[in-house]
Amino acid sequence: MSARRWPQFLCVAGFAVASAGAALALTGSPALTRVTQKGRAFAPGAVSLQAGERIEIVNDDGELVHHAYLEHPDFGFDIGEQSPGSKSVVAFPKKGTFTVLCGIHPKMKLLVAVK
After folding, report:
1. What is the pLDDT of residue 27?
2. Is 101 in a helix, a strand, or coil?
3. Long-range contacts for 66-74 (Cβ within 8 Å, ≥24 apart)?
4. pLDDT in tens, 37-87
5. Beta strands in the chain (DSSP E)
6. Of 13, 22, 50, 89, which one's alpha carbon is 20 to 30 angstroms from that of 29?
7. Helix (H, G, I), strand (E, B) or coil at 51
8. Contact 98, 112 (CB under 8 A)
9. How many Cα atoms occupy the beta-carbon half-sphere of 44 within 13 Å?
10. How far apart are alpha carbons 20 and 67 in whole angstroms?
11. Which of 57, 31, 32 is CA-nearest to residue 44?
């Protein structure tokens, strides 16, 4: 390969490797669904996942603290108090229908259907 073509080859090869890495990263990790907490509500109020997928629970309230948790015979979690701007990721490993609640705002409900 001539010295003039070498930089072009490196650029193309680097793109191919970077693209392959991105594809592996996308296929190697479970899906992530964003759920926000704002105005004493989860948004969206219901999500559908496959077993093993995750939700990212984000406190988008400027002033309110939230406390998402789930108590179910098959699966549960408690992320504790979540200050404004904080995020927590929770995986749903089992099939079922779950209701995530807020320990501070009892009317907040997030329905999670895991297939």
Report:
1. 52
2. strand
3. 66/37, 66/102, 66/104, 66/105, 66/108, 67/102, 67/103, 67/104, 68/37, 68/100, 68/101, 68/102, 68/103, 68/110, 69/100, 69/101, 69/102, 69/103, 70/98, 70/99, 70/100, 70/101, 72/96, 72/98
4. 999 999 999 999 999 999 999 999 988 999 999 999 989 999 999 999 999
5. 32-37, 42-43, 46-49, 54-59, 68-70, 77-78, 87-91, 96-102, 109-114
6. 13
7. coil
8. yes
9. 9
10. 39
11. 57
Q: Position 21: which residue type?
A: G
Q: How would you label 93-114 residue by residue, b for 16+ Cβ within 10 Å and e otherwise?
A: eeeeebebbbeebeebebebeb
pLDDT digits (tens, 9 = 90+) for 2-44: 555 544 444 444 444 343 343 334 456 678 999 999 999 999 9
